[in-house]
UniProtKB/TrEMBL annotation:
Domain called Cobalamin-independent methionine synthase MetE N-terminal: residue spans: 8-336
Organism: Paenacidovorax monticola
Main EC class the enzyme belongs to: transferase
Keyword Transcription regulation: no
Pathway assigned to this chain's UniProt record: Amino-acid biosynthesis; L-methionine biosynthesis via de novo pathway; L-methionine from L-homocysteine (MetE route): step 1/1
The protein's role, per its UniProt record: Catalyzes the transfer of a methyl group from 5-methyltetrahydrofolate to homocysteine resulting in methionine formation.
Protein name: 5-methyltetrahydropteroyltriglutamate--homocysteine methyltransferase
InterPro entries (alphabetical): Cbl-indep_Met_Synth_N, Cobalamin-indep_Met_synthase, Met_Synth_C/arc, UROD/MetE-like_sf
Pfam families found in the cross-reference section: Meth_synt_1 (PF08267), Meth_synt_2 (PF01717)
Name of the gene this protein is made from: metE
Family: Belongs to the vitamin-B12 independent methionine synthase family.
Amino acid sequence: MAATPLLTHTLGFPRMGAQRELKFALERHWRGEIDAAALESVGAELRARHWQAQRDAGLAFATVGDFAYYDHMATLIQLLGCEPARFGFAPGTPELARYFAMARGVQAQPHEAASCDAGCTHTAHEGAGQPALEMTKWFDTNYHYLVPELHADTPFRLSGHRLFDEVAEAQAQGHRVKAQLVGPLTFLWLSKEKGQAPFDRLTLLDRLLPVYAQILARLKAQGVEWVQIDEPILGLELPAAWSQAFEPTYWQLGKAGPQVLLATYFSPLETQLRLACQLPVAGLHVDAVRAPQELTGVADWLPGYKVLSVGVVDGRNIWRTDPDAALALLRPVADKHPGPLWIAPSCSLLHVPVALAGEEVLDAELRSWLAFATEKLGELGLLRDLLDGSVQDTDPRLAESRAAIASRRASPRVHRPEVARRLAEAPAGADQRRAPFAARQVVQRGRFGLPPLPTTTIGSFPQTAAIRAARAAHRRGTLDDAHYRAQMRAEIALAVRKQEELGLDVLVHGEAERNDMVEYFGEQLDGFAFTANGWVQSYGSRCVKPPVLYGDVARPRAMTVDWTVYAQSLTARPMKGMLTGPVTILQWSFVRDDQPRSRSCEQIAWAIRDEVADLEQAGIGIVQIDEPAIREGLPLRRALWKPYLDWATRAFRLSASGVGNATQIHTHMCYSEFNDILPEIAAMDADVITIETSRSDMELLGAFGSFRYPNEIGPGVYDIHSPRVPTVHEMLRLLRKAAEVVPPAHLWVNPDCGLKTRGWPETEAALRNMVHAARQLRQEWAQAAPAAA
Ligand SMILES: Nc1nc2c(c(=O)[nH]1)N[C@@H](CNc1ccc(C(=O)N[C@@H](CCC(=O)N[C@@H](CCC(=O)N[C@@H](CCC(=O)O)C(=O)O)C(=O)O)C(=O)O)cc1)CN2
Ligand code: MET
Ligand SMILES: [Zn+2]
């Protein structure tokens, strides 16, 4: 039993709302249907509700600062006064308008775009249209943050007031506040250097720290006792200069402000464990789900007077916490650590859905195995009560938890012998194509006869309100199967017609019938359950509903063949079949914690392989197997990369290698930096890869200097996240840049990613320009070297 006070808190709570209220308010605001004040009142209402949930669960604090209208890094950019100058905001532009401009980009005015001719220089448009900030994965999650852009001379200045307003708001509602913000070193680490002259962004720390100190001083003046400063980069392998910067940084920040709880998560601290324990702050939070083995070391090294916050409740998954296992972790720490012990989720609850309430589609047994954010807050209270002895072993909550854990462990729904057998009996070479790429390329060129620089898209076309409404009606039962199917077929026909009109070379069916590229497959595969309302923010207003992988995976029937064959029947051009790959299905689902991820992934791979075979059998010559999540699945520590990459790329190859040489396999990747895993991407041996590159200005392709990607590649020529229509000229520039490092005969032309979040007008305009750019370049090249074409 702990001698010192035990309390519970959370590192953060989901911001969207149980009914995705923030999403709908944001989208209405962007459509001009509600003004900023109306949006702000939805935000305030959600914050109030979420703080109240924390109070109801007996948490010691309401955590303030985790809310954001789009992304917490973007909010921090404004707090620190470092909005990129390129946006050229006119004085007096409201804070929220500037915020959404950074997040979503600014469309050039039509007359300016029209004045762009092939002769204008790229910079001629500065101040007019502006692309959004680059967006990338938050560590190894499916959450995307906006990347701060820093120049050598970027000024920092305490500018935003939201954090302070929200603190006052919570205090007015009677909460004891713990403020939360991302720390200066993690902020700099996650930022990107911009500008001509190279510089080291760590050199900006000296200018940044005084602003953080001001923030802390201001919070203290507001009466805030604790600030949680997140420095998750302490779990990464940091260059020495970065880890050495922690001590002086926190000496400075410790002076002016409230007590600091330094929060680490997602990864073991390893060589930085001592450093984290000895920093001059009042407390340390560690992730005991990802690194239970380090708890003893942390208790040994952490000075006895400091707060130790133990993240025992999994903030990244939805399984109910095993109370006995959690107590077995907590008890020795409580005995060893004389200082205050806090119990928390491992990380912010941003990554799990809000509440199980309303999940009636899940059967009672499965439901009893789960805990979403609200239930997790409740679990914290039970652990606290058991640990401090205020309730006994006979507490009914404990009995209920134990029964659920036992039921999941013993359930016959989880294990299927035929699935295990298939994995065990895989023939040697099942993960290899029959012939090497060069031979396949010859066969495929003969089969498809595509022009140089073939144009294609990544799969999805706009998911219009009509499509969503039809699906919602179908779900509710007010639209029957036949009518739903007819309507989706009409959408597919529309997409095919538009692609033919635009002159694209390889067509797609458009994915109208899919709610989401992972959920759609999860719904059809055995071993997955799906929720009615288990939404998690992915970026901005966009959410996903990750399926729950609870048991062995099997494919009861073909999942995409009918739709694809129908689409192919409408056109003479090749129709790409469209599947989601095993690593991405794994990565974007809530997965089993009772077997290695590698094994779950292999099971999914066999199911996808069967689907690929059925497509091939049905005459589909090109199949794309999307793997956008392969990079984010990479362990945060390099030492663990190789085993992961081995099983992940093998799973992809297993899914892709059942076909003949004439079948062209594509894959697609986005939202990540791929430079450091190019050889492994090549080892996936897809015939064609389409990959996001435009937001980072084809930076990725720089890596091709040292590594020559062997197969064909379509580096994305425009960013699909913004409604902004790219000019022909812009895309020509990117293609020329790409052709410097990729053999022109290997180049494809495509957007960065799927177009489901876009509307048709901008989609058609952008694709028209894209096809135009490809044709212009084909012509130039044919004139320059007639023989080569
Ligand atoms: N799982 C996953 N992760 C991913 C991606 C992805 O595509 N999938 N892409 C990357 C970026 N992330 C993205 C994540 C989500 C969306 C997205 O568009 N999400 C949609 C929801 C998609 C969906 O599940 N739609 C369902 C449900 C739609 C819905 O909300 N329906 C309403 C009713 C709507 C109506 O009547 O009009 C309701 O149920 O209340 C459907 O189409 O059936 C959204 O937030 O709006 C886009 C990109 C990385 N990670
Ligand atoms: C996030 S990757 C998306 C790939 C998918 N085929 C689409 O076009 O939407
Ligand atoms: Zn993509």
